[in-house]
Amino acid sequence: MARSGLGPLGSLLSRTRSLAPVVSLVDRGAFEEGEFSSDGIRLHYEVHGIGPKVVVLTHGILLDSRMNRRLATDLANRGLRVVLLDLPGHGKSEKPRHASAHRMDSYARHVIALLDELGVDQAAVGGVSLGANVALQVAAMAPDRVRALVLEMPVLEWAAPGAALVFLPLLLGVHYAAPVVRFVARLARHLPDTGIGALDSFTGTLRLDPEESAAVLHGMLVGPITPTYEQRHTITVPTLVIGHKIDFIHPFTDADHLTRQLPNARLVEAHSIIELRTMPARLTGEIADFLLDALGPWRLRRSSLSPNDGDPGLAGHG
């Protein structure tokens, strides 16, 4: 897998040989795709925009990177370089059928591996639901790699009863009703993509094989869901937490408590669970302003410079 660095804007991503331009129908913004291997698992990602201020976003459980495409396009238009990662078992990434591949801490290691792959020393990291928890794990495991956090609808202690009520029956359903799930998946594979990222992401969930879905759900039950209370208090990077009050799987109490636990966090209340995907202007503005301020001056990995790279402030990754 070729790697892209943080060189001059004109050639920033041209070094990544495995990337191919793709146009998103929903926002008509060009993006590029790439693959790399982490812990022996093939992972897929998208890159929206160019520039030294890098943001990595991950998706919700059983969804994929398409749910964040509109946000990525809008942030790229503000001068940010946004990387969307499909976690194992999701989207175009490989789909291991064993639970250990889907632990939250394993997912966090893949995000760190993505930063290594791109030659990025530090980035803002964020996500929605599952992705928010993964971002927290990254900050706890590799604090020197994280410049800021964007956490949409984190799932913490107050969510545990609601999550158990939803995900345990879902796990049992995909296991014991596998023939029905496979039939639905076959039908869903004939549905055309709409170009609406969030909707296509949901359709992608219906296309999953039941063993793939079961492995993801099982992995959530066997590993840590979130950093400990003590670990959260040590995460000092600027953090934007987004929560809303109409969802028992993502209770506003969790978002509020997390904001109080993180020393440098700010809470923004969403009007609904779908505001960022259906009426994104307000929240996107909040996120963009926060990230542009939090990322501020940037530095790159000098060790990746070759003697012919020229400007020592612009490090590529060859």
Which helices and strands occur, and which strands form pairs?
Elements: E1 21-23, E2 30-38, E3 41-48, E4 54-58, H1 69-76, E5 81-86, H2 104-118, E6 123-128, H3 130-141, E7 146-152, H4 160-176, H5 178-188, H6 197-206, H7 210-222, H8 229-232, E8 239-243, H9 252-261, E9 265-269, H10 275-278, H11 281-295
Parallel strand pairs: 4-5, 4-6, 6-7, 7-8, 8-9
Antiparallel strand pairs: 1-2, 2-3, 3-5
Report on the architecture of this protein.
The protein has 318 residues and is α/β, with parallel strands linked by helices. The protein has a single domain (9-304), classed as Rossmann fold (3-Layer(aba) Sandwich). It is built from 11 helices and 9 strands. It has helices at residues 69-76, 104-118, 130-141, 160-176, 178-188, 197-206, 210-222, 229-232, 252-261, 275-278, 281-295, and strands at 21-23, 30-38, 41-48, 54-58, 81-86, 123-128, 146-152, 239-243, 265-269. The chain has a 9-stranded mixed sheet with strand order 1-2-3-5-4-6-7-8-9, sandwiched between helices. The longest helix is centred in the middle third of the chain and has 17 residues, at 160-176. The termini are close together.
